[in-house]
């Protein structure tokens, strides 16, 4: 499996901007300490690739820096050539992770999950919709016909839902906070709206009801999993109050379900806005470490993942058994 990082392509932000740019470098350093050989820098997505999911005029405007003020405010980033390059690389990373998934079962993008990007506009820190572009490129290449997007970021995958609306070959599942941004939701194939303060048990129960249904309906040849860290209780934007253990159980359940059905999966990190950035990095790292253990075989966590047969319906039990103590055994730095 390959793990793609783009943190060298820094998005220049004004001082005090709330986007947690620092998490990407710290996450890559944590991964490099346990699996440096799996890391790669992805190619940038090209205009032609981006235009498979986006309005070509929007792609041109982003590239040329001709978006107007309201369009940029909607995205939430100032325009710069580096912002364009970062957005292209992050999208390229999810495409590369999908190719890795098709080749060997799994691929990871240490960024991505920019699910608020619509066909003709960006929104909420999302310029291009990486999952939509990746799926469309692979469909165009006839590598896949059907795909499933499992969006477990705390915010609805509204851009993804809108881009794939009416397409019977793509199933979009989103579990998100009812009262979270975006306040005008789009219709995914299956939306699970959760109340503030949902917590681990109710969240996992909802997921365990939704994911098997989505898998049965989608019959996917590829899944893209947005493993957002923002359902976490310490998140400034999320409202669902999941614990780190609950999020680890979520990941174990999702990856177990894909493995049990032999569905290749590309994982993107998506959101994470906890006050303590170490918490965000912990949660993302736990997701990546679990993927490494399952798909590469090396041990990077303090526990062994349960066999696939134990993953369905026992996520809470699994979480309580494994605890949440991911760490590098022998950091090589
Ligand atoms: Zn989010």
Task: Give your account of this protein's structure.
The two termini are 22 Å apart. It is globular and about 45 Å long. Mean pLDDT is 91; it is low at 304-333. It has helices at residues 22-34, 47-50, 56-64, 69-75, 81-104, 130-140, 158-164, 199-218, 244-260, 277-296, 315-322; strands at 2-4, 39-40, 106-109, 147-151, 170-177, 190-194, 222-226, 265-268. The chain has a single domain (2-322), classed as 3-Layer(aba) Sandwich (Arginase, Chain A), CATH 3.40.800.20. It is built from eleven helices and eight strands. It has 333 residues and is an alpha/beta fold. An eight-stranded parallel sheet has the order 2-1-3-8-7-4-5-6, with helices on both faces. Helix 1 runs parallel beside helix 10, helix 9 runs parallel beside helix 10 and helix 9 (244-260) crosses helix 11. The structure holds zinc ion. Residues 153-155, 228, 230, 270-271 line the site of zinc ion.
């Amino acid at each position: 499996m390959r793990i793609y990082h783009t943190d060298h392509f820094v998005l220049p932000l004004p001082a005090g901007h709330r986007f947690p740019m620092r998490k990407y470098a710290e996450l890559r350093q944590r991964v490099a300490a346990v699996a440096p050989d799996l890391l790669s820098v992805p190619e940038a997505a090209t205009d032609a690739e981006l235009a498979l999911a986006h309005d070509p005029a929007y792609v041109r405007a982003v590239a040329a820096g001709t978006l107007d003020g309201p369009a940029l405010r909607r995205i939430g980033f100032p325009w710069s050539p580096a912002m364009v390059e970062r957005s292209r690389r992050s999208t390229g990373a999810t495409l590369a992770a999908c190719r890795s998934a098709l080749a060997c079962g799994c691929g990871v993008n240490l960024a991505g999950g920019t699910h608020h990007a619509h066909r003709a506009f960006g929104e909420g820190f999302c310029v291009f919709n990486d999952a939509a572009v990746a799926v469309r490129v692979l469909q165009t290449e006839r590598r896949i016909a059907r795909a499933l997007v499992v969006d477990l970021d705390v915010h609805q995958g509204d851009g993804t839902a809108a881009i794939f609306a009416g397409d019977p070959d793509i199933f979009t599942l989103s579990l998100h906070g009812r009262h979270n941004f975006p306040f005008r939701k789009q219709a995914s194939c299956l939306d699970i709206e959760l109340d503030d303060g949902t917590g681990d048990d109710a969240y996992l129960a909802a997921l365990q009801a939704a994911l098997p249904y989505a898998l049965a309906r989608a019959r996917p040849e590829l899944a893209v999993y947005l493993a957002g860290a923002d359902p976490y209780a310490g998140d400034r934007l999320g409202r669902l109050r999941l614990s780190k253990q609950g999020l680890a159980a979520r990941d174990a359940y999702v990856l177990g379900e894909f493995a049990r059905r032999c569905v290749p999966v590309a994982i993107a990190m998506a959101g994470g806005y906890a006050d303590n950035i170490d918490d965000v990095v912990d949660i993302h790292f736990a997701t990546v470490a679990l993927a490494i253990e399952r798909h590469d075989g090396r041990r990077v966590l303090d526990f062994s993942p349960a066999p696939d047969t134990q993953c369905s319906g026992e996520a809470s039990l699994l979480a309580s058994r494994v605890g949440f103590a991911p760490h590098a055994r022998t950091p090589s730095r």
